[in-house]
Write a structure and sequence with these properties.
Helix content of chain B: 55-70%
Number of strands of chain A: 5
Number of strands of chain B: 5
Strand content of chain A: 15-25%
Oligomer: heterodimer
Structural class of chain B: alpha/beta
CATH class of chain A: Alpha Beta
CATH superfamily of the largest domain in chain B: Histidine kinase N-terminal domain
Number of helices of chain A: 4
CATH class of the largest domain in chain B: Mainly Alpha
CATH architecture of the largest domain in chain B: Orthogonal Bundle
Number of domains of chain B: 2
CATH superfamily of chain A: STAS domain
CATH topology of the largest domain in chain B: Globin-like
Number of domains of chain A: 1
Largest sheet of chain A: 5 strands, mixed
Strand order of the largest sheet of chain A: 1-2-3-4-5
Distance between the termini of chain A: 37 Å
Chain lengths: ~120, ~300
């Protein structure tokens, strides 16, 4: 399944679809980092609004994506986690520790803007 | 009405007067005899029972008149249950009785106590009546005891079931008390928690809060637990989970109003306090929240 990745200036926006297989997630991991390299992006927003379930593999993959992207000097923000999904995740101990999160795309962009302002 | 015939060989024994005693009455016949006795002596036995109840200091929450009224209907139901062995009626009566007396503060041991006292009073009267005929007494008791035990059991269980039903109802009511998620500023929510939190209520609060964060686009939430007396392990963990889940929605949680007892609980269970942003009281919590949101509160004039 192809995940659309949009470019918005120095930020890449990847919108995850509802049912991503493990293979899809693995593919995405490499794909996103390659895109960051290609466009010299400063940040990636991963929008998971459409995901109504988040298992441990998906959660681990997101953390790995964030770590790999940080090695390229870029920031990752996960946005759009649904309340029910968030609740289920913390009960399983999947806290996405060390990865920035925001309510939605708008808030994610606000967060990044502030972050760039502080570091520039 | 079937008479159980003796199974001993009858040749030559019919003339023996002792054979008369071996002929055993059917249990139902014995029960009938015993029920008749209990009905005949109703007034006296009931009075004796009420005296024993008062002596043992049971049903202190009820007046003498109330005890007498209830004693009368319990006695009659008891005897009827012995007679008809229709325990459904007794169960219904027990539940009905419980509904009436539980609000009066009558305890389980009192209800069990009075039923056992009645059993004793009636048994004693049977001893008195059949004291000259030991074998018959035994047979009467054989009929009486299982039935009496079943009655005691039925009433006790009925009482306890009613209590449990009331408790469940109250728990439901407490859970339904909606805990408001209040917006006090743009992007700032306050969740004041008051009372007892059981795991179910804790879960409900978390779900409510997370939905509130999304609806109000909150960046900061102040959870005030000044009104919470104690917290067990499960609920403390739930609080931590609430903080973590809120972060996943992009909101920071400030917990205020931790009592010394709750602080002790959290430390004891090893909660990672680095994950928890805590401030002493609600006022301090709101002030910090405002700072986080970039507000500065400035006093311009004295109160009028």
């Amino acid at each position: 399944m192809e995940v659309p990745i949009l470019k918005q200036g120095a930020v890449l926006i990847a919108t995850f679809q509802a049912a991503l297989s493990d293979a899809d997630l693995n593919h995405l991991r490499m794909g996103l980092v390659q895109q960051v390299v290609k466009f010299r992006s400063r940040a990636v927003i991963v929008d998971v609004t459409a995901m109504d379930v988040m298992d441990s593999f998906a959660s681990r993959t997101l953390r790995e994506i964030a770590h790999m992207i940080r090695l390229r000097g870029a920031e990752t923000v996960i946005v759009g986690i649904q309340p029910e999904v968030a609740f289920a995740m913390v009960q399983l101990g999947l806290t996405l520790e060390g990865v920035a999160t925001a309510l939605d795309l708008e808030e994610g962009l606000v967060y990044l803007t502030q972050k760039f302002k502080n570091t520039d | 009405m079937s008479k159980r015939e003796s199974t001993t060989k009858d040749s030559g024994t019919r003339s023996n007067p002792n054979v008369e005693l071996v002929r055993s009455e059917a249990p139902s016949e014995l029960l009938r005899e015993l029920v008749a006795h209990l009905r005949q002596n109703r007034t006296q036995l009931r009075e004796e029972w009420v005296v024993r109840i008062t002596e043992t200091r049971l049903l202190t929450a009820m007046t003498k008149e109330e005890i007498f009224a209830e004693a009368t209907s319990v006695y009659d139901s008891y005897v009827e249950a012995l007679e008809t062995e229709a325990f459904e009626a007794l169960q219904a009566y027990a539940r009905n009785l419980s509904e009436r007396i539980i609000p009066r503060g009558v305890e389980t041991h009192e209800v069990v106590g009075i039923v056992l006292l009645l059993r004793d009073v009636l048994a004693r009267s049977l001893f008195a009546k059949y004291q000259t005929d030991f074998k018959k007494l035994n047979r009467i008791l054989d009929a009486y005891e299982p039935a009496a035990n079943r009655i005691a059991n039925t009433v006790a269980v009925g009482f306890v079931q009613e209590r449990e039903r009331v408790i469940r109802q109250q728990q439901e009511a407490i859970r339904e008390l909606s805990t408001p998620v209040l917006q006090v500023r743009e992007r700032l929510l306050i969740l004041p928690i008051i009372g007892v939190i059981d795991p179910q209520r804790a879960r409900q609060l978390t779900e409510q809060l997370l939905r509130g964060i999304r609806t109000n686009r909150a960046k900061v939430v102040v959870i005030d637990i000044t009104g919470v007396a104690a917290m067990d392990l499960t609920v403390a963990n739930n609080l931590v989970q609430t903080v973590e889940a809120s972060r996943l929605l992009g909101a920071t949680v400030i917990v205020t109003g931790l009592s010394p007892e709750i602080a002790q609980t959290l430390v004891t269970i090893g909660v990672d306090l680095g994950k928890m942003n805590t401030v002493g009281d609600l006022q301090g919590g709101i002030e910090q929240a405002e700072r986080l949101l970039g507000y500065k509160v400035e006093k311009l004039a004295e109160p009028r």
